[in-house]
Design brief:
homotetramer; alpha/beta; Rossmann fold; Dihydrodipicolinate Reductase, domain 2; 2 domains; globular; amino-acid biosynthesis (chains A, B, C, D); NAD binding (chains A, B, C, D)
């Protein structure tokens, strides 16, 4: 199935095609070389309350698919595809997945299968734990091995993606204390296409606000899980305490994460930078920017890149790492496509770019 | 030279690579199939006062070219390329072009060679007319014929692109009176990367303002020129009076043009729509939206699409046409690449998409 | 009742206090000199589905009233006030007004009583005409006389406010033909605090779109009504044809209207300007800007000012008038307070400013 | 001089009237009750390179002063005023102040006299320390006493204002460890009206970026100075280590600060909240929001309010305090007017409001 140059044509379905995650998956698929070469076909597009509408009325930026009509999200409709992307509300993926063949590559953009710890799941999501699937962040230690050939994939949360990538090298290298602070500014699409007064343009524009502070955000245990894995990769069995504050900013896309942690004694700026240079030297999507150059979300708009800068605040004794991603691309749909590529044995970067749309 | 699948590799230079037009040309070239296939090479990148800087420090969204250093914009540096894109301040293109071989395909994103009428040029640009080059709007009557094989191309202005495409079918079909009103809302990148207090984020955000009203904007005669050509295509030798008002809106990209003209007696909505359906039935980048669906600039962000809607205001006796483009893509760099494709005999749509980045 | 310096304290209620219009009325009342002097009391605050909530949870910018709890909107709750502002969905005002004493000053920010022509009402609002009340635009011919001592007032629509003030002098002076084109760019608060996918921040930011084009917007007959009145003031009994296109722009507040009309032969720029200078010489809130200076909505944010510029496009034979207002202030709540002042015999400008909040 | 109801009229000058700080001082003065009562006169308005221009061409939102012409900023022009506000580039205030009478109340919106520690000044500003003046943050311990009757006042930086007020109670009460992390999201006006490519609307909109990270921002020592003073007020002579990261967000105004610090053992959420309730119970401008309600900058636009929320992250062992201000009002010009009021013995809140302009 993995051969996109001559084998059978891949059939791909997108459940939740009227949402932001589903729309971004489709945007990326339409630019995927397999699609352009006729080796990947966009099959069923499904939705919940929007079933019956044309995609053009809901996602007017996807002109080539404008006339497609959305079907109901049911296992029957999704059957018969090689790859199924799920962009569903939390809690709906397990039921769908159970009824699809094991050989179908299911890539869940929702949270249901991200956490390995049932207690953490229940504490944060107030529901029964459905289990965990291979985690779609190839750049974490062991990430690619988990994804190659996988048929069930949990796409990471947007905040955990950038926060974990920003902190994992320092944690793995043991150069920081095991308490980290993440303050991450996000565009509004991270909240989904949800009818909520607080997400109206009139309320959002010209204003910044924090929400779900002091450990209340569901992405907190996911960051901790990733950093614990990073620590283990560095040989330390420790829990990482994560103080996480999400901030909503007046922009449609993008996350800028400011990550700080107390430096272990004796670590200087050059050593800290070297840790990151080594960790990400061969990563196609992670760019440690030249010294002094700072990430900005506008530069990664629509791209799968993660831009990072690392600095040492000697006076305060802190490591400061800044990371930027597009929450819908690398933070969701880009990771989903990257994971699909790995699962199918296609070139990992196919259909993804490190070129942003700016200004 | 036109064969990108097997012939010699095309060498392309971009003068003015630190500006918005130049940056967008580079963004599109990096995604061009000829570039991906190794048949197109990005050669010299030049700038004015930014010469000597890395592209990464000026265009941080173009990560694959981040380490490239900008050269001075001189004919020597630009020589030896098959295609040269010029994104220079008005008035500088002629001197450069004169010193490059005739066989070099020069694609000027500036205004210097857009107007055919020397008097109009002198009135609006207060300088000597340099002449006119084939005009890079393939969708105008005769547009493709002028561009195939051309080695000198004048890329249209962003406002004239959408305004002319919105009005040309009605003018050509003779269903409107020869006075048109265009009010076009533009994002700020249309003004270029210019240090001007009025373009600071603090001044722009949360505010809309008109500028260069009452015929003062230089794009006015360009719209009139295009519409006169459309009228001639319909068999009428008439001047079209253009009342043009540009409005700056708080967004980085996009133009939404509202075009109105008095309907000729007896023309109804169905007839008006039919005129547009016929005119653009085969155009790959122009999409007449379903009845009642209105264009929005956010849906064409980063895409080369033009979305249109046409309606009749029977009470006021007016035809109303709304058009949306991305001013940097179809409005500048996309038209430039589309023109390059035509000039070189490549598939006209190569490297261009009708899929926008949204939300 | 009109004496705010020594008579009985005015009791003021606001129905619809959780909406944008109601919130802006309260913002202005909190800064009104009568309130500061203890001569005006903010009484009942009511809402529909938000009844029972604190104002602080809904209008967090109104800190001095944060603990006030919203009551249900009923005639009983609103009784016993001297002034009642209504910020209700269309169609609800008549029923409320009928049950309040005739002496109560009722100021309706909704549309119900704006149109004098029942046929126009029924065509645009698809419901029975409730009648018409004195129209709260003091700057129109005869406006102040209609409002002094009035106990029922219909606050104008936001688009009609700026469009009518921009065009009325020219229409009254007979210097333009009786067909006008208005393209008005509006911030999102004009649509109200409505749960609508198209008003989400993610959809709105970075995008401009037209809506209700070609005469479909309900403010069209209101502009025509005002301009007919202006024409009559100039001695002409004519209908004015209005081609009106509203455009939604990514900003919370503000309307920038571009108004064009064919100039009558022989009228030059100086004459046109003189018409406006004369018309608005004594208006406290209308500012004809110096020649060449253009209105911007950011400069009137939170202010009751209308800024205008007038120009002649000699080539196209058009008069172009640009006007800017804050749609929530002069466009709604400011007009409401200005009308209240006139109705009560207070200084018309009390509690209103021409100083904007910028940048 | 303090009696505004009957004594001599106060003459007030503003140096730097073309900048954002100067413009905001003027906006507030135009609404000040002493101005409205004719007891405060706006005298000289001065500028640097903008001298000779009208205020209307530079600050079009200040319509009542539109015709005023800016003078050069010289001691001669500023002499003869009772109060002089300085909104000058860093380093220019001392020379001006030296030449004005000691009795003139000089209120410096710049940084020159904020830091008491010459070494800190020299490290961060790379110039000789000019000394320190009473610090214009009345809400800090001892703040009002320092300002009553003062004739030289240093207005705090915008970031230090909100950060210090957010953290001072916890530091004074000794409930946190002496290392604090502040990540503060700011609107662009905080950078001033500066011609800088990175501040262009095209670059700013749709993008967030950190800058001057890892202790490089000049406001870092100012926050530390304030928190040391708070600690001393609580009886502890300790230095507070401040990890400060400023983030630029796409909005014109507002700062949202996320402040975290490790909680001392045994402190719970109720105790933390009680500390803040007590500290700010009588403060007219500081509002501790109801539990669970989070500050947003849009709610304090144009107001002098500081909204705070405090929470305990028990898992991470951190106190999290979120604060919002308008950087130009409470963060600059509001503090300046509040300080003027205190210096002159006027009601501290005169001319200032806690009502924001929203949405």
């Amino acid at each position: 199935m993995a051969d996109t140059s001559g084998g059978p044509v891949l059939r791909v379905a997108v459940a939740g095609a009227s949402g932001y995650a589903g729309g971004e998956v489709l945007r990326l698929l339409l630019g995927h070389p397999a699609y352009r070469a006729g080796r990947l076909e966009i099959g069923a597009l499904t939705a919940g309350s929007n079933a019956g509408s044309t995609l053009g009325s809901l996602q007017p930026h996807l002109l080539p698919l404008a006339d497609r009509v959305l079907a109901e999200t049911t296992p029957e409709v999704l059957a018969g595809h090689d790859v199924v992307f799920l962009g569903l509300p939390h809690g709906q993926s397990a039921a769908i997945a159970r009824l699809l063949p094991e050989s179908t590559v299911i890539i869940d953009c929702g949270a249901d299968f991200r956490l390995t710890d049932a207690a953490a799941w229940e504490k944060y999501y107030k529901s029964e734990h459905a289990g965990s699937w291979p985690y779609g962040l190839p750049e974490l230690p062991g990430g690619r091995d988990r994804l190659r050939g996988a048929t069930r994939i949990a796409v990471p949360g947007c905040y955990p993606t950038v926060s974990s990538l920003a902190l994992a090298p320092a944690v793995a290298a043991g150069i920081v204390e095991p308490t980290v602070t993440v303050v991450a500014v996000s565009g509004t699409s991270g909240a989904g296409r949800k009818l909520d007064v607080g997400l109206l343009g009139s309320e959002v524009m010209g204003s910044a606000r924090a929400y779900n502070i002091a450990g209340a955000h569901r992405h907190t245990p996911e960051i901790a899980q990733n950093l614990k894995l990073a620590a283990a990769d560095g040989g330390a069995e420790v829990d990482i305490a994560v103080s996480f504050t999400p901030v909503l900013a007046p922009m449609p896309r993008g996350i800028l994460a400011t990550c700080t942690a107390a430096l272990r004694p004796g670590v200087d700026a050059a050593q800290a930078r070297a840790v990151y240079e080594k960790a990400y030297a061969d990563e196609p999507f992670i760019h440690l920017l030249p010294e002094g150059v700072l990430p900005q979300t506008g530069s990664v708009l629509g791209s799968n890149a993660v831009t990072l800068q690392v600095a040492v605040d000697a006076d305060a004794g802190q490591l400061v790492v800044i990371g930027a991603i597009d929450n819908l691309t690398k933070g969701t749909a880009g990771a989903a496509v990257q994971s699909m590529n790995l699962a199918l044995g296609i070139d990992e970067t196919a259909g993804l770019t490190t070129v942003g749309v700016a200004p």
